[in-house]
Amino acid sequence: MKLLLVIISTISLGAISYGKDIGVCKCIGYVIDKDGLDEEDRIEADSEEFMSVTCDKEGIEECKLFCMEVIPQATRDLDLDFQPEGLAVTLGQFICELLETRKFSGYRTALFASACGKEIDTGLRSKETLCCDYGKRC
């Protein structure tokens, strides 16, 4: 997955529009439960920039569509048991390692697009729930 992120970040998908604010589009995740989102539930593998977008309705939508296309392809539709290219562990274990200070169970992974200070829910969720015990998948 990291290899794919590096490849994506090197592709110029920039949206250049004179006179408009330009922001960076990132695809991030959250582990979510029935209580909603908390900042501590945020999953961000690295700070790689994916693409530039205009900070208007069209740019935010472009970011959302980008994340909805790229991340499911790289993760087999957010399959927590899948081992993406470039990772030595499954997606679920990778997420648990990123959230190593947490212990939880019954959460789903949700995909969000982040650009221009806004986070947009793509509506995509993992099929399986995730259980993590301080960096280890249970």
Please summarize what this structure is:
The chain has 138 residues and is of the alpha+beta class.
What does the average pLDDT come to? 84
* Rg computed from alpha carbons, rounded to a whole number of angstroms: 15 Å
Order of helices and strands: HEEEHHEEEE
User: If helices are DSSP runs of H or I spanning 4 or more residues, what is the number of helices?
Assistant: 3
Main features:
disordered N terminus, 7-stranded antiparallel beta sheet, 26% helix, 3 helices, alpha+beta, 138 residues
What would your notes on this structure say?
- With 138 residues, the chain is of the alpha+beta class.
- The protein has one domain (2-137).
- It has helices at 2-10, 57-75, 91-98; strands at residues 22-32, 42-43, 51-54, 103-115, 118-125, 130-133, 136-137.
- Strands 1, 2, 3, 4, 5, 6 and 7 form a seven-stranded antiparallel beta sheet that branches.
- Strand 6 and strand 7 form a beta hairpin.
- It is globular and about 45 Å long.
- The chain starts with a helix and ends with a strand.
- Residues 1-17 have low confidence and may be disordered.
- Keywords: Signal.
- Residues 1-19 form the signal peptide.
Give the secondary structure arrangement, pairings included:
Blueprint: H1 2-10, E1 22-32, E2 42-43, E3 51-54, H2 57-75, H3 91-98, E4 103-115, E5 118-125, E6 130-133, E7 136-137
Antiparallel strand pairs: 1-2, 1-3, 1-4, 4-5, 4-6, 6-7
Keywords: Signal
Signal peptide: 1-19
